[in-house]
Amino acid sequence: MVTRRELLAAGAVAGLVTPRARAAQAAAHGGALALAERPRAGGRPPLVVPDGAVLPWVLKDGVKVMHLVAEEVQHTFCDGLTATCWGYNGRTPGPVIEVEQGDRLRIYVTNKLPEPTTVHWHGLRVPNGMDGVAGLTQRPIRTGETFKYEFTVEKAGTFMYHPHYDEMTQMALGMTGLFVVHPRRAPAEEPAVDRDVCYVLNEWSIAPGASRPNPMAMAEFNVLTFNSKAFPGTSPIVVQKGDRVRLRLGNLSAMSHHAMHLHAFPMTLVATDGGVVPPSARHPETTWLVPTGSVRVIEFVADLEGDWAFHCHMTHHGMNQMAHGIPSIIGADVTDIAVRLRQLHPSTMLMGEAGMGGMMHMYRMRSKMPENSVPMLGGTGPFDDIEMGGMFTIVKVRAPGQLDDVWYQHPPGTVASRASDDDLRRDGIVPGRH
Ligand SMILES: [Cu+2]
Fold first, then answer.
1. Residue 317 Cα, ligand 1 centroid: separation in angstroms?
2. Does 112 reside within a domain?
3. Ligand 1 centroid vs 257 CA: distance in angstroms?
4. Segments forming the whole domain that contains residue 336
5. pLDDT digits over 270-297, tens only?
6. 67, 148 Cβ separation under 8 angstroms
7. Is residue 404 one of the residues assigned to a domain?
């Protein structure tokens, strides 16, 4: 039987992607590609919420009426890891609330959790009694009750929503969401964007084999997510070459800030949940820190084709369920101890003496791993395994008409490859002596 890996390798060598390989690659990405629509004539582009949704509303006498249901959800972080989480309207993060500046809103919140909750509108300016802080500005919404929040949205910007009752537990279990308020009139000095992408960043502690995240964790977070998905479960962003792309990044992690790094394209911070960054204060960076409890709105121009990584640069946030408690044996000669251990326990594997690379393969055999766990799991790329997990996704920049290419087709001579002896001699490096 041909493995998926062999199939992909064959496709890469032949320079073509069979429909089957395409399906396998899409599966490796956790499902459908998040292909953004381009702006409609005269309008702004629709929000792109990879692996997420936008909250619907109905207009009642000039008021936008919405309904959030706080409830338990079965959530799949990536193939192989599903947990019982808490969220809104059947998902974590909750659907993005998308409204216009000046809108009057009435948001019903039904509590189907086993404990009380509230909703706080993070960054929004609302009447004090609508601020959602249990005990301080309202009484908690008890199990089975529906509360209503009603306010007029004054400011445009990117904000968030989350509970303000048992905050530690409820956000750690997935109760987060973005709140996007479009300006009534786009500021003339701002360039229009072609793609508008929304992410909630979060971190979770899920022991291998456990069925629920552990909300008590303070340090050992082992599942790091974009919109509650861990790579390879994150859907990539697909954009057209030349697009100006806006990323709205809201961080509701319990303890961590995330250093969000994009390959190839300098990114400019244009706004936070506090307001717009004045143009005179803007500068390019390759990595922007998104502190917990804050939003960073970042823009870049995707002017170079390829499959570009976008990830948290804290290296422990770009992996899945690593066992952090083990001692390092990198560089140690463990031959003798491995032989002796195998006499005691035949299936003993001592891993990592030459680094952690390649461990995915061993873990993939899963012979000793608990069900429902993804230790060290990464993705499958066109060349080999992608040895990252967690807060990692791919920005696919494509020429017009090639937006459905699953993997970038590199022009000949533009992929790093093994140097020949002739290459080395030509450039003064003696083969075998370097
Ligand atoms: Cu991080």
1. 5
2. yes
3. 6
4. 325-372
5. 999 999 999 999 999 999 999 999 999 9
6. no
7. no
